[in-house]
Design goal:
Organism: Panicum miliaceum
Number of strands: 15
GO molecular function, one term: metal ion binding
Order of helices and strands: EEHHEHHEHEHHEEEEEEHEEEEH
Keywords: Iron, Metal-binding, Oxidoreductase
Pfam families: 2OG-FeII_Oxy, DIOX_N
CATH class: Mainly Beta
CATH topology: Jelly Rolls
InterPro entries: DIOX_N, IPNS-like_FE2OG_OXY, IPNS-like_sf, Oxoglu/Fe-dep_dioxygenase_dom, Plant_2OG-oxidoreductases
Bound molecules: 2-oxoglutaric acid, fe (ii) ion
CATH architecture: Sandwich
Helix content: 10-25%
Length: 373
């Protein structure tokens, strides 16, 4: 049986051939961006276990990172390297399975708990993105394809639980702009903690109970799937977008390709060894009435080996209505967003073309524009 060519037969989407909402990947206006260039670095161990003064500073830095960048790296998160590697390998195996082994998930709808496909949502994409993906609802209940069997093994489960716990902790702490604990909990729309943060690693599964979805992506290079050499070194893996959840945790297989926008400039993001990237999502922007920004990011592919990323998206539970917290709205400033059920928001974002931060308009309060005379 042949390996599944998840990409369809149309021409690949290469530099300079990209039209529509997103500019072609430019080679000159991208700067590389690592810790020395200012990407905030958050030390998770200090955040949860540090002495009071160091912890207070780490929490302040986290708040600033969410405000200034909507993007940061997390070190000392406690997720074992072998767990990540084992999960990567298993996801790679899944992508290599023959099509018939995963057929039941290929036509899945955006809100189905397991979905396998290409691009973002190929029905709506309109163009080619060089990405194969598996999307799964992951926490509190892990949904995953039956094959390869290792996928439902405790390793993948624990990976998802660990990242959910770490992400939820960060999300909760990043709510330090909210004055009271009760408010924080309400704003995040998930259950109260059952354990002190110090116990997070041993009780990852039950620590927080956010709703989490996971996805694995393989960004394969057009160079190895076309007979003629490509004109440009890079092609699109995913166009510019912000994520629909609260916070996204991302780790990759050592191949870079994630770009993040800040102050109108795109930067290549290079992680410190072993670090996660964390990307603020639309729900954080909504709940903070725009104070924290969902970060605009995109992915490019090029060359070998193929890039793999695994993402855990930390979200409110599906039926929570997410809205700005009143005390965050300064006097005289109106609400930027209305309350929207997270399930509806997610379905909207997942069913349409990726369009920068366009999905947020679904929740944005439309102001009357004064008629011109
Ligand atoms: O893997 C990447 O670089 C980006 C993935 C991403 O943005 C997403 O899955 O939403
Ligand atoms: Fe994303």
């Amino acid at each position: 049986m042949a390996e599944t060519p998840l990409h369809h037969s149309a021409d690949p989407f290469l530099d300079g051939e990209h039209s529509g909402h997103d500019p072609a990947v430019p080679s000159s206006d991208i700067s590389t961006c690592g810790p020395d260039d200012g990407i905030p670095v958050v030390d998770f161990d200090i955040l949860v276990n540090g002495a009071a003064d160091r912890r207070a500073k780490a929490i302040r830095d986290l708040g600033r990172a969410c405000e200034d960048w909507g993007f940061f790296m997390v070190i000392n998160h406690g997720v074992p390297e072998e767990l990540k590697e084992a999960a990567m390998e298993t996801f790679m195996e899944l992508f290599s399975l023959p099509e018939e082994e995963k057929a039941e998930y290929l036509e899945a709808e955006p809100m189905d708990p397991i979905r396998i496909g290409t691009g973002f949502f190929s029905v709506a994409d309109g163009v080619r993105y060089w990405r194969d993906y598996l999307k799964m609802f992951a926490h509190p209940e892990l949904h995953c394809p039956a094959k390869p069997p290792k996928l439902s093994s405790s390793r993948c489960f624990y990976l998802s639980a660990f990242t959910a716990a770490a992400g939820a902790t960060i999300a909760w702490l990043s709510g330090t702009l909210l004055q009271s604990t009760r408010r924080r909990r309400e704003a995040c729309c998930w259950c109260s903690p059952r354990q002190s943060p110090r116990a997070w690693a041993s009780t990852a599964v039950e620590f927080w109970r956010p709703w989490t979805s996971s996805r694995a992506s393989r960004f394969s290079s057009p160079n190895i799937t076309r007979r003629t050499p490509v004109r440009a070194a890079r092609a699109w893996g995913l166009p510019a977008h912000s994520d629909h959840g609260f916070l996204t945790l991302l780790f990759q297989n050592g191949v870079d390709g994630l770009q993040v926008e800040r102050d109108g400039r795109w930067r290549f993001a290079k992680p410190l060894p072993g670090a996660f990237f964390v990307i603020a999502g639309d729900q954080l922007e909504i709940v903070s009435n725009g104070r924290y920004r969902g970060a605009l990011h995109r992915a490019v592919v090029g060359g070998e080996p193929a890039r793999m990323s695994v993402v855990s998206m930390i979200s409110p539970c599906l039926d929570a209505v997410v809205e700005p917290v009143p005390e965050l709205v300064p006097d005289g400033r109106g609400l930027e967003f209305r309350g929207v059920r997270y399930r509806d928001y997610m379905e909207h974002q997942q069913s349409n073309k990726l369009d920068g931060k366009g999905a947020l308009d679904f929740a944005r309060v439309q102001r009357d524009i004064a008629p011109e005379n």
